[in-house]
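Question (not urgent): is this output format expected?
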Amino acid sequence: MSVADPYANLIPEARYRAVYLRYEKGKPYGQERWFAWFQITEHGEFFGLNLVRFYNVPRRPYLARTHNLFHDYVAATGSRPPAKGLTPDFLKGCEVLVEVTHVRNRIVGRRRIEQPEDCWYSKIDGIVRLTAGSPAMPRCAR
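Got this back:
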């Protein structure tokens, strides 16, 4: 299992403890996204493996209740996110319990195309709860 290539991973679907590393901004297929990178900290076969969590970049300054970042903030802190300026960086220095799932399909237009098994990879489906650390409270611009 290569730690250097996070897209070449396929680990069992389960819950793992992971630490937040960083986030990057990208524009795959024309839609802006944030890629939040986590590293598994549980000792075992997958220790040190990097996994990604995808977020759509909000179009408005506030997060909708249906946004994945909104759900992850509530799971990690137990409270609602601030009105403005939230990025995945609020998890800096935190260890969280994450739910890992497999990506088996590729969406083309409105169709889902099943990919061959050697093209599957694992990604983080969501944050379950905070296990260590204290999330940073983002500053609101005035």
